[in-house]
Amino acid sequence: MLELLLAASVGVHPAPECPVQLEVRVENTQRHYRPRPACPIGFDSSREALRALLAHAGSDTEARLHLGRIIDYPWLSALLERAGGRTDNASVAKTLRAMPELAHLLPGWTITALSVEKVLVRNRRPYDAIVWITLARGPA
Questions:
Q1: Is 112 helix (H, G, I), strand (E, B) or coil?
Q2: What one-character DSSP code corresponds to residue 27?
């Protein structure tokens, strides 16, 4: 609950599907960026919302992105489910990090770390998880 009180809205991205609330919170000295789509959004809307959100990074060379639940990004959920594989957190994180679509989602940033928790499984395939991504400025 305290985390929600410390998060500051920095705007709303008007995605065609629905609005995406853009939030930034500071933990210690690091900023954490969080998009909160009001409904599931597509790849282009995801990319544009993240571009708008990460514009608030200013000259920071690193950013911590809390993507939230993959199910809010059906294109990513479908890619993960198609990839199949093991369903433990480390394997799902490795699968996601290897997806070129995820790198293309964040132009101007490089993924330096990716972690997941609470992987959900359907038909023995992962399809949802909570995702955190650590980014560094630079080409994807």
A1: strand
A2: E
pTM above 0.85, yes or no: yes
Distance between CA 81 and CA 77 in Å, rounded?
6
The C-alpha atoms of residue 34 and residue 25 are separated, in whole angstroms, by 8
What is the total count of domains within the chain?
Answer: 1
Query: 124, 109, 5, 29: which is closest to 67 by C-alpha?
Result: 109
Domain hosting residue 99, numbered range: 2-137
Give the DSSP H or E segment for 78.
helix 74-83
Sign for the CA dihedral angle at 102, 105, 109, 115 comes to negative
DSSP 85-100: ---SHHHHHHHHHT-H
Helix (H) or strand (E) holding 117: strand 109-122
Inter-helix orientation angle 89-97/74-83, to 10°: 110
Query: In this predicted model, what pLDDT tens digit does every residue of 75-131 receive, in sequence order?
Result: 999 999 999 889 999 999 999 999 999 989 999 999 999 999 999 999 999 999 999
Which one is predicted more confidently, 4 or 48?
48
Q: How far apart are CA 111 and CA 54, in angstroms?
A: 13
